[in-house]
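Example record for the data management plan.
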Amino acid sequence: MKTSKSTKHMSLIVAFIPVIALIAMLAGDVIWFGEDSSYGSNQMALLIAALIAGGIGVSRGTKWEAIREAISNSIGQATEAILILLLIGALAGTWLMAGIIPAFIHYGLQILQPGIFLFAAALICAVLSLATGSSWGTVGTVGVALVGIGTALGLDEGWIAGAIISGAYFGDKLSPLSDTTNLAPAVAGTDLITHIKYMTITTIPSFVIALVVFLLVGFGGSASSGVESGFAEGFGNAVNGMFNIHPGLFLAPISVLVMIAKKVPAAPALFIGVLLGALTAVVFQPDVIVKVAGDDMSFAAAAYVASMKSMAVDTAYVTGNALADQLLTAGGMKGMMNTIWLIICAMTFGAVLQAAGMLKRITAALISGVNSVFGLISRTVGTCIAFNILASDQYIAIVVPGKMYSEAFEKQGLAPENLSRTLEDAGTVTSVLIPWNTCGVAQSGILGVATIAYAPYCIFNWISPVMSLLIAGFGYKLKYKDGAHR
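Corresponding structural encoding:
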C-alpha cells in the first residue's frame, strides 16, 4: 500500500490534526446528544475526521486509490465480525421467543440472597452477558432490576452498579457473541476462538478477584429477604404467564457452547443457534409463536412468520409486569445495524489515517524508546485508555490502537492474539469508567447512578488493564509467531 511521500517529513502536529478534530466533534456529540451520540452523530464525526485525514494525505502525495484500497481492506477485515453481529441480533430474537433468555433471568434471580447480593449480582450479570454477548443489554435488563433490589436491601448504589457492570463486562469480554470480542481479533489479525482462549489468561483471574471483593463487601449489607422474594415471585409469575419455563430450554445454548468448544467457526455455530432457537420456540412456546405472528393463519405459517420476525426486526412481549415487559424485548438483526454502522465508520477512519501515513507517524512517536515487550504492551494499554478518554468511544479505542501497534507487535515477533487481548483488557472495559464516553453516559443513564458514583467500585474494570500489565511484566503466556511461549 502506498502512503504519503515520507512519514518522517510529517510533523506530529499535522498527524494529530484529524485526531484532534475527531475529539472535538465527539466531545460536542456527548454534550449535545448524550447517550444518543452513538446513534449517528459519532459516525458522522468519524467520517468527517476521515475526510480531513484524506485531504491532508492527498495534499502530501497520497493517491486516492491508495486510500480507497486501505478502506476496502480495513472493512474487509471486519466482514466476519459484521456477519457475526447480524447473527447475534437474530440469535437474541429467537432465543427470546423461545423463552431461553427469560429462563436465564428467571433462574438467575432465584440465587439472590441478602448477604451475597453483590457477589450474586456480578455472577448473574456475567452469566447473562456470556449468554447474550451484550454488556449494554445485560445492564439495561437485569441490571436495572438488580439496582432496585440492592437499594431495597440497603446497599450503596455505587457498589451495586459496580458489581453489575463488572459482571456484564466480564461476560462481554469472553462471549463469542459480543461485538467487541469479535472486533478486537478482526483488527489484530487473529481468529475469534484463539482470541477468547488468550483472553481467559487475564480475564478470569481479574473476575475472581472482583468476586472476592464483592463477597467481602456484601456481607456488610443488611436486608430483608422478603423484598427480594416478592420481587422474584412477581417477575417469575409474569414470565411464567407468557413462557413455558423449564430446564429443557437450555438445550440450544448448550449446543452452541459445545460447538464453539469443538472449534466450530463462530458464524456457522451462531447460525445453527439461531435455527435451534426458532425450533425450540416451535416445540415449547406455541402460544408465543401465535402471539408474535398473529392468529389468522395456520400454525406452520405462524411459525415461519414469527421466526422471521424474531430474527430480523424488533419483538416485544407484554406480560402486564412493567419490569418483565422492559426485559422481554429484542431488536433482531435490525437492532445491530447501528453498531455495524459505527464499526464501519471507525474502520474507515483508521484506514485513512493509515493510508495517509499519520498512524505510522503517531505510532513512531508513541513507541519511541520502547525496546521491550512489556514497554510495548504497556504503551498499548495507555493508548487504549487515552482514546477512551479523548475519543469517547470504545470502538475507536479498539480499532485505532489496534492499527497503530499491529506492526510493532509483529516486529517484536509477538502473535496477534497478544495485541487483541491487550485491546480488550484496556479498551473494552475502561470505556464505562469515563463519564463522557458513550458507554459511561449510557450505563449511568440506564442504571440511574452517576458514572463518578459507580466508577470506583467497578473492580473488574480496574483490575483488567493492571492484570494485562502484570502478565506482560512477568512474561507469562506471551505467544510468539513461531508458536512458542516465552
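Summary line stored alongside the record: The chain has a mean pLDDT of 84.
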